[in-house]
Amino acid sequence: LNDTNPRSLIVRLCDVLSSLRIHGVVFEDDTRSEAVAQILDFISAQTSVPIIGVNGGSAIVLTPKVTPQDGPERQLQVIFEVLEEYDWTAFAVVTTLLPGYEDFVDYVEVLTDSSFIGWEHRGVVTLNLTDDPEGARTRRQLREVTAQIRLLYCSRDE
């Protein structure tokens, strides 16, 4: 959403929420506006859909808890807090060969193994995008992931 005026924001979010099966929304904007935070809080409260705000207020606020400059360990800690809060305990990990992906997978294991939460880790899918230019293998691998929650580790372009 490039337009964060209140009417446009409410209409667009409500359109998305009513037309798709959405379990949660990650919202990032660069305005840091309190009005946007209040709108997101209101929509989340009325729809019971968690809205995670990356740069502003919302039902769950990642900032200042986590920023893009934080390492994957801190980002994963916050993500697992969100998963725990909503009782989303079954998940899979999907990665590309982006440097650091092995550390990401290892830290997911550390977090789940050292927790009293009954995490249901449904495996890791590592996509090799360079060996699959048409994307057929990638689509097949992603269809085989049975968990509704997927922790994704890749670059923005990927």
Poorly predicted spans: none
Tally of domains: 2
CATH fold name of the largest domain:
Rossmann fold
Please state the CA-atom Rg, rounded to the nearest Å: 17 Å
What's the story with the biggest beta sheet? 3 strands, parallel
- Give, in order, the helices and strands: HEHEEHEHEHE
Fraction of residues in helix: 25-40%
Number of helices: 5
- The appropriate CATH architecture of the largest domain is 3-Layer(aba) Sandwich
Question: What is the averaged pLDDT score?
Answer: 78
Given the helix and strand composition, which structural class is it?
alpha/beta
Strand order, largest beta sheet: 1-2-3
Strand content: 15-25%
Shape: globular
Instruction: Give the terminus-to-terminus CA distance.
Output: 21 Å
Relevant CATH superfamily of the largest domain = Response regulator
Task: Please tell me about this protein's structure.
By secondary structure, the protein is of the alpha/beta class. It has two domains: 6-59; 72-153, Rossmann fold (3-Layer(aba) Sandwich). The protein contains five helices and six strands, in the order H-E-H-E-E-H-E-H-E-H-E. The strands form two sheets. A three-stranded parallel β-sheet has the order 1-2-3, covered by helices on one side. Strands 5-4-6 form a three-stranded parallel β-sheet, covered by helices on one side. Helix 2 links the parallel strand 1 and strand 2. It starts with 5 loop residues before the first helix and ends in a 5-residue tail after the last strand.
